[in-house]
Amino acid sequence: MSAAPAPDGSSRPGTAPGSLIDLHTHSSASDGTDSPAELVAKAAAAGIGTLAVTDHDTTVSWAAAAAALPDGMTLIPGTEFSTVVAAPERLVSVHLLGYLFDPLDPTIVAEHQRLVAERLNRGLAMVDRMVADKVPISRQQVLDIAAGAPVGRPHLGMALVQAGLVGSVTEAFTSYLAFRGPYYVAKADTDLPAAVEMIAAAGGVPVLAHPRGRGEVRVLSSDYIGSLVDRGLAGLEIDHPDHDAAARAELAEIADRFALIGTGSSDYHGHNKTLRLAQEHTAPEALAQLVSRGSGSLPVVGASVGSS
Predict the structure, then answer these.
(1) What is the pTM (predicted TM-score) of this model?
(2) Domains of the chain listed by start with CATH number
């Protein structure tokens, strides 16, 4: 049974890192609300011994998270890539986790720069649509909330919360920011197969994020997932808050069929979402498989000051 969440979003008390493994979390470098250092501290308090910080389309949080590691805690460098798959009616957004890739790989650097610009243009275009409809938020307000992070819909949601128009970012996503709503603007994300190949070519380990949550189920059939294995796909996020028991069982069967690594993660975003650190986690043997596949960067282990 999971422990009740503490007021800071952690799932169990304590100050030293424990044995839990959480491979999907977000800091204020993208759409989380904790700084990288705060995220690491809360993860340690939640009993997490191995943490992946996977901000959207950026590696900017890696250094700050590594610098904040307590003695013995391990950081798995990662990113959540924004990708799309073509469906008959429209492009479907699919998120792809990339671990242990080379952050200086020129293809990834260029694609991250393009995606950050896409996020900014899309976010400001949505703000403009709302302002034209007399919704009381502004471009500068959203930019201030993002504080230099790639602008995303959660930042618009926080602006709507500040304006008193919704009670939470989650509520904003079901109303003002909804895909079929009047203010939605699409952005040009990376083609999923190309993203898998890009991460693998940079020495990374590509893992499909929440493949049975949100809209992904419409395009991520078992056969389609199998086709991505030939391009370098290494794993599936099986245990995720968006997945029910049936989805987890199906994904476990797919992982077995294609010899994919099965991971578990919280997808923690701070107070933007009601998710607890380590409410879902990864088995040690799965982590070992993932680390063995990565060659673009290394896990970082925290050490006491003055240790050799």
Answers:
(1) 0.84
(2) 20-301 (3.20.20.140)
